[in-house]
Request: fold
Amino acid sequence: MIGIDRKTYYNWIKTDILFKSQIDDILEDKIDFVESKLIEKIKENDLRAIIFYLKTKAKHRGYSEKYEIENNDTKKFDNQIQIYLPQKED
Reply:
């Protein structure tokens, strides 16, 4: 859109502090815009938006699909379930 090569863009990000700062500001503005749309959906009682918000912003209250299970050896497992099936007798 601005007439530079992708490689040039990423090179400027790495080497030009002011350019990187301005790009970061633009990205933050985009996030603010999208976040405002999410809040609009929440106000409309959109259940998917509500669940998404809770899963991303309220993990500390238990709204998460990731579970940690501690065994006797105090090793942690994330979302690992072992299923043991009876072995077929010959």
Summary: The helical segments are 6-15, 17-43, 47-57.
